[in-house]
């Protein structure tokens, strides 16, 4: 259900249930969680690249898994979130390495919001982001209410979440929801290039940068200045910082080792 391979320090994670538009069943939840956990555990991983197999990125939860016509009573979807989505979302946000996403087609429901929780999102121009929850009587999850509101503000977040209208990739980029919309046939090349750039970068510094930007969403200015002080203290002690400055002074390209 999820392909996972390490290639030159990039962990490539491909959601792989194309017949179901890569919607999440329990197997896929487990395999996806294991992939992100691997990125935490292995020093050889210096960047994650996430994408979907086939024509879609991810259609969110597999709605066939819980057919109301064959269930005894209403489901406890809070339990589903607590068991499957929320721990994975926390792993994504706490990973001190960049996660680059290639949104190769439609991203709906939790599928859209998982992409938005990652760090640098590129999308093919034909891709769309759909807050599909409203269409089936649900509410935004997988961190969507947080990410949409912070990235877009309340007006656009409510517009998307209440209507469930698809947001095309180029508009998503214009609105600041994602980093870039690119031609469909350039998507994988561009995302690969970015992932390789990150994987050859100062991994600790990039990971701390991710954490710093995320902390700013909820910190006061004063608290964030303290956060910056602490973060820079750690970054300043890395071998990659010494290498970066030495390379600059030597007028050569740095050779970062991720330490
Ligand atoms: C699917 C799905 C899908 C199963 C397409 N499931 N089969 C959290 C906690 C617990 C429970 C509930 O949810 C959540 C979080 C959520 O993510 S809720 C939101 C769930 N997602 C949706 O509501 C999106 C449902 N899908 C769609 O609206 C459309 O399929 C989109 C707009 C994504 C794509 O439309 P099309 O390009 O026209 O493709 P299609 O609809 O023809 O789908 C192709 C196949 O994929 C089809 O199967 P079939 O056997 O007929 O070929 C669909 O049934 C299947 N599929 N999404 N979520």
From TrEMBL:
GO terms for molecular function: isomerase activity. Keywords: Isomerase. GO terms for biological process: phenylacetate catabolic process. InterPro entries: ClpP/crotonase-like_dom_sf (IPR029045), Enoyl-CoA_hydra/iso (IPR001753), Enoyl-CoA_hydra_C (IPR014748), PaaB1 (IPR011968). Pfam families: ECH_1. Belongs to the enoyl-CoA hydratase/isomerase family. NCBIfam families: PaaB1 (TIGR02280). This is 2-(1,2-epoxy-1,2-dihydrophenyl)acetyl-CoA isomerase. It comes from Oceaniradius stylonematis. The gene is paaB.
């Amino acid at each position: 259900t999820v392909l996972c391979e390490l290639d030159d320090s990039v962990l490539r994670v491909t959601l792989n249930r194309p017949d179901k538009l890569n919607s999440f069943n329990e197997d896929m939840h487990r395999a996806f969680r294991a992939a992100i956990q691997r990125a935490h555990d292995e020093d050889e991983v210096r960047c994650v690249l996430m994408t979907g197999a086939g024509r879609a990125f991810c259609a969110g939860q597999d709605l066939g898994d819980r057919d109301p016509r064959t269930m005894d009573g209403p489901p406890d979807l809070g339990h589903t979130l607590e068991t499957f989505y929320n721990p994975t979302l926390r792993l994504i946000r706490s990973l001190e390495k960049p996660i680059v996403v290639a949104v190769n087609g439609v991203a709906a429901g939790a599928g859209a919001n998982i992409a938005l929780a990652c760090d640098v999102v590129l999308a093919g121009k034909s891709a769309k982001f759909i807050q599909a929850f409203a269409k089936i009587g649900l509410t935004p999850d997988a961190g969507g209410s947080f990410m949409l509101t912070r990235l877009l503000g309340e007006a656009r977040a409510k517009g998307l979440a209440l209507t469930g209208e698809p947001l095309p990739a180029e508009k998503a980029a214009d609105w600041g929801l994602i980093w870039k919309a690119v031609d469909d046939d350039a998507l994988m090349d561009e995302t690969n290039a970015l992932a390789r750039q990150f994987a050859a970068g100062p991994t600790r510094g990039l990971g701390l940068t991710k954490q710093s930007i995320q902390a700013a969403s909820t910190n006061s200015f004063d608290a964030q200045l303290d956060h910056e002080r602490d973060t820079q203290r750690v970054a300043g002690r890395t071998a990659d910082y010494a290498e970066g400055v030495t390379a600059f002074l030597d007028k050569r390209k740095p050779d970062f080792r991720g330490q």
